[in-house]
Amino acid sequence: MAVVAAAAGSLRRAGWGLLRCRPVVRCPLYPAQRAFHASALLRRVSDEQKQEPPPSSSQQRFESHPPGDQPDQEPQRSHHSYTDQGGEESEDYESEEQLQQRILTAALEFVPAHGWTGDAIAEGAKALGLSVAAAGMFHSDGSELILHFVSQCNSELSNLLEEQQKLVQLGQAEKKKTDQFLRDAVEARLRMLIPYIEKWPQAVSILLLPHNIPSSLNLLTSMVDDMWHYAGDQSTDINWYTRRTVLAGIYNTTELVMMQDSSPDFEETWHFLENRIADAMKMGITAKQVQLTGEALVQGLMGAAVTIKNLAGLNQRR
Amino acid sequence: SAKFTPLPKMAASIGAVVCRALHSRRHGKFLSIGRGLFSGARCLVAEGETHFGFQTVSETEKGEKVYHVFESVAKKYDIMNDSMSLGIHRLWKDILLHQMNPYPGTQLLDVAGGTGDIAFRFINYVRSQWEHQIRQKLKSHQNLSWQEISKSYQEEELKLPGGSQVVVCDINKEMLKVGKQKAQHLGYSEGLSWVVGNAEELPFNDSKFDVYTIAFGIRNVTHIDQALQEAYRVLKPGGRFLCLEFSQVNNPLFSRLYDLYSFQVIPVLGEIIAGDWKSYQYLVESIRHFPAQEEFKAMIEDAGFLKVEYRNLTSGIVAIHSGFKL
Q1: Cβ–Cβ of A90/B101 closer than 8 Å?
Q2: Which residues form the Ubiquinone biosynthesis protein COQ9 HTH domain (chain A) (predicted)?
Q3: Which of A167, A267, A295, B55 is the most buried (most CB within 10 A)?
Q4: Cα–Cα distance between B318 and B216 in angstroms, integer?
Q5: pLDDT for B5-55, tens place per residue?
Q6: Which of residues 121-180 of B touch A (CB under 8 A)?
Q7: Is the pTM of this model over 0.90?
């Protein structure tokens, strides 16, 4: 009995090891996400008393990436075609991109009051001791602020999932079944929206603007990818796409339900989520059943046809 | 573009000949020679000398000459702007304000702001934003403080919302006089101050302003790099530098039409409306001498500004350069 358990444990660990080799290349991350991670390294020592952004310990996230990704982690990524300020450092020993990240992080505090707008960014700049004119670096509709927030949440989520994975590996926690795992992951991710839930509809509508769709879609797909990766998906065929599409659909619909949910602690939303995931699981099983039934039917028909031919004597060779 | 580099004296004399030829209004042939010699070219000058239009003058002289030009055009400045640009200059200035998007509480320094166009637009913008904010709060049923409610009922606002302020600085007293009269006439009184000062040596302390603008003024400054350094000095960290200025047209066909219009029509308008041919000749010549977009952008970066960008308006006739002090 103990031998079986030990064998199962070692197989499980080997299974996790296999997961590290990702079969498909992941979508490129939102560039600011990379800059954001690099900022933790380049920050000046005396800046430590300033607000430390939560995913600064997310360096281990890149462990599972092939090493080719590392050189891409430039802190300088210009979005505008006219600027060519590469590597230019101001007196604070950080680049413009890093300063922008800091302003956006500070601006998140003011979102409940001002909404996801340039006003919140201006207040954020003021809070950091900069002039309010610094908000002119960003789009006036607040898109960068929302994208920054979403990528921050995604990093937090992957940290969480990584830590859970570690606990399972160390044997300190039970491995969850896929549907439970996905349910917990989506719930954890959606809970990060709770402080901003009142203004979140505004954010969603801004993310759907044409000039934001590439970035927001990127973030969504990378998040869904993450969840399936940690859930143990090793598929290399069409399933890879169908699973991610289904999960993206579940996530989006649950988010919409959450925005108009008024039950205590969003119980209705988690209930809805549970049902959707159960549906998805059933859908997977049903699809298989349909396929098998179809095959069985076809075989039955072929057999009937052969029998009839035999009876009619058409199969005999003269 | 090939640079034409005659000796300074020769340039001055050729320039003088061409100018005299140009003054005889119907001689189109001389005009084309003048354009061929000088369009897009920047002559090398000796130390201590600079350009005044197509003439070469000493640096001290240039300051004086520019002063006299604006002293004489001050009263008709706005009318001439409208007639020369066919009213489009208003759109340019509106776009500048829109790009600035000032948040209530912004301290603006408008250098070479003379007659106050940018300052008045700033005041209007901040006021309408404030009203917009109030309306938003009412819509979302947020509780307004009593102060805010009383402010929205006030007909004459004693202060600009959020404590925004604009300082108009100009080297020329005549232009400031015209600006003050306009302000009185249009009813702008609060949050506005008028200061005489030189863009190369601003009479303000360090880190005082959120936004520094200079609209159609920097090409008249003798030492542009000094003006940029002063701009850097008086801005707060995070502050924004905005410059609206004539620049090089990128489309060759349009460029020819524009040259034709500049050299043929504008000085004539100047003579008819303002009675001053020479000043408007100086105007169009000084536009040709001002560095192109990329070069000016490099100059701004040299002064220490980051995230410098430019935006062409009306296919390059004017450009808005923006930089941040980070």
Answers
A1: no
A2: 96-126
A3: B55
A4: 9
A5: 444 445 445 444 444 544 444 444 444 444 444 444 455 566 778 888 888
A6: 133
A7: no
